[in-house]
Amino acid sequence: MSENGEEKLLAVARHIAKTLGHNNNMADDILQIFSNFDGRFSKENLSEKAADADPRACAALDHSLKTLDRRISHYVSSDRPIWADSADAAAFLDVVDDLVAAVAEWNHLAGDKSVGALLIRAEEMLQHAMFRLEDEFRSLMERGGESFDLTRPYRSGESTENLPFDSEEEEDEEIDDQARNGEHEDQIPVAMPVTDYDIVIDALPSGTINDLHEIAKRMVAGGFGKECSHVYSSCRREFLEESLSRIGLQKLSIEDVHKMSWQDLEDEIERWIKASNVALKILFPSERRLCDRVFFGFSSAADFSFMEVCRGSTIQLLNFADAVAIGSRSPERLFRILDLFETLRDLIPEFESLFCDQYSVSLRNEAITIWKRLGEAIRGIFMELENLIRRDPAKSAVPGGGLHPITRYVMNYLRAACRSRQTLEQVFEDYGHPLKEYPKLDDRVAHSSSLSVQMDWIMELLESNLEAKSKIYKDPALCYVFLMNNGRYIVQKSKDSELGTLLGDDWIRKHTAKVRQYHVHYQRSSWNKVLGILKLDSNGSVPPNAVAKSMKEKLKSFNMMFEDICRVQSSWFVFDEQLREEIRISLEKILLPAYGNFIGRFQSVPELGKHADKYIKYGTEEIEARLNDLFQGSSGSTGSRK
Q1: What are phi and psi of 580, to 5 degrees?
Q2: Where are the alpha helices (DSSP H) in 247-298?
Q3: Measured between alpha carbons, how far is residue 1 from residues 8, 10, 12, 40, 415 in Å?
Q4: What CA–CA distances, in Å, run from 472 to 221, 235, 479, 572?
Q5: How far does Cα 163 stand from its chain's mean position?
C-alpha cells in the first residue's frame, strides 16, 4: 500500500476510535485493540499526538478563537451583572463551553509551535472568563444569602426556601415602620427558644442554586474548581458565623474562658448548648444539602467546600467545650459539665454523618476526642470532691452535735449528681478507676458497677472524716449524738433515690444499724450512771436507819445528775423528729420503770415515808416532761435538714 494510502487508513482508524470512544480512556482502549490486530495500527502510529498540525486547521482554530474572544470580551468587559438577564447568562455559558471544548480538542497538539501559541491565547481567554464567572458566582451568593434568624418561629418540617429574602430597601422600610410604631431603634430582638430541630434551611432560592450549579460546572471544567470552592466557602462561612452570633455564641479563646467568672461561664454554656444543637441539627445539614446541590456531580468539590464552610464554626464550638474540659475541676462545675458532655454525646451521630469524608473526618475525630475529655473532666471533679472531703479540717466542733456542713454538702451533691446516673455510669464504665484503688471497700464492690464503687468510696471517705471530727467532743455522749445525727442524715438522703440504688439495700441496712449502735452508745455513756443510782440494794441485813440514809443519798444524787444531764442535753440537737422521738421513748422505757420502783421503795421505808415528799423532787410526769425537752437545741446549733 502506498504511503498516502496507509496514512488514509491510519486516519480512518483514528476517526473510528474517536467516534466510538466516549472518553479518552475508551478511545485508548480501542486503539489498543487495533494495535493487537495489525502492527501498523500501533498506538504510536495512530496517536494524533504524532501527527503534525494542518496549517489550514490552525487557521480555523485562530479564526474560532478570535470569534470566541469577541463574544467573551463583550460579557467580561460589561459593568452590568451578566446574571441580571437570563438570556445573557445562557449565552455567556455557551461561549465558555465552546472555549473549554476548543482547548480540550486541541490540547493534544500543544507540542506544535503554532497550536501551542494559539492555546496560550485560549488559556488567557479562559482565565478572563473564569474570573468573570467567579465574580458572578460571588454576586449570586451574596445576593441570596441571609443569616438564619431564630427570632422568628419556624414550623416543624418547614423549609425556608419560599421565605422572602430581605433586601436593603426592605430593611430600611422595616426600620421606618418601627420608628413610626414608636419602637426604639436600638431594640435588639431576642431569639426564641428552639425545641424542634426538624427545620430545613434553603438559604438560597432554587433558581439561584441552579445558576450557581451551572457556573460551578464550568469553573470545574475549566480547571478553576478550587477557586469556585473558595468563593462559595467564604460566603457561606459568613452566613454561618452570623447565624450563630444571632443566638448569642461568642468567639472566645481558651484564655477568655478560663478568666470568666463561674456565673458568666454558666450562661455561656447555656448559649453553647443551644448553638451546638442549632448548628449540628439545622445549619450544618442545610449547608451539606446546599453544597451537594451547587456542586452536583462533583463530590470532591462538594466535600471540600462543605468542610471549608463549617470548619471555623465547628472548631469554635469544640474549642469552647475543650476549654471547659481542661479548666477548673471545682465540684460545683460538675452539673454544667455534665450538660456539655451529654449535649456533645447526643450530637456525635450528627458529627459522624456530616463529617465523614476525607476533608472533614478530622472534625468528627476532634469532636469525639473532646467529648471523651469532658468525661475525664467529670471523673476529675469526683477526685477533687474526694480531696475536698479529705482536706476538710477537724478544727471546731458543731454546736450541740448537730449536722456538719460537709455532711449536708456531700449528700445533697451526690443526690443531685445521681439524677444523671445514666450519664455517670457511661463515664465511669468507660474510664472508671480500677478496684485496687479502693482497698478499704467490701468484697461486694467487685460485682458492682464502677459508679457504685465510686459512690461507695466517697461515702467511706465521708464517714472517716466524720469519725475524726467526732473525737473533738470531750463528752462521749455528745460524740455519739454527733455521729447519730450525721449517720441518720446520710441514710435518709440515700433512701428512695438513685444514690441509694447505687449504694444498695445492704449498704442502707448496714448504716441504719450503725445509727442504732450510736444510739446505744449514747444511752450507755449518758444514762448508765443514773440507772446505777436507782438500782435497789437487795441486802436485807442492812439496818433500817442505814437504808434510809442510803436512799436519801441516792435520791439526792439522782436529782442532781438528772438535772445536770437535762440542762446540758437540752442544748444538744437532734435534727430528725423521728430520731428524737425514738431516743425519748427508749429513755422512758429504761428510766421511768427504774425511777418508779425506786420511789415506791423510797416511800415504803418507815423512816422516810412520812416525809417522802420532802425529798422527792420529780414525779413521773415531770421526768417525762424533762425528757421531752432534750435535744431541742439552742440558736446556732440546730442546723438545717435540707
Answers
A1: -60, -40
A2: 254-259, 262-278, 284-294
A3: 11, 12, 15, 12, 100
A4: 85, 70, 8, 15
A5: 33
Amino acid found at 476: P
Q: How confident is the model at residue 151 (pLDDT cuts 50, 70, 90)?
A: very low
Q: Is 238:148 a contact under the CB 8 Å cutoff?
A: no
Per-residue three-class SS string for 520-572? HHHHHHHHHHHHHHCCCCCCCCCCHHHHHHHHHHHHHHHHHHHHHHHHHHCCC
- The single-letter code of the amino acid at 580 is R
Residue 512: all three cell numbers together: 441504719
| 66-69 long-range Cβ contacts below 8 angstroms, 24+ apart | 68/95, 68/98, 68/99, 68/102, 68/122, 68/125, 69/121, 69/125
Contact (CB, 8 A) for 125 and 99 = yes
Helical ranges in 279-358 per DSSP H: 284-294, 299-325, 334-354
CB atoms within 10 A of CB 447: 7
Reported as a pLDDT band with limits 50, 70 and 90, residue 200 is low
Q: How far apart are CA 499 and CA 378, in angstroms?
A: 17
The answer on pLDDT for 313 being more than 60 is: yes
Q: Which of 308, 197, 316 is nearest to 248 (CA)?
A: 316
Q: How confident is the model at residue 5 (pLDDT cuts 50, 70, 90)?
A: low
pTM of model > 0.85? no
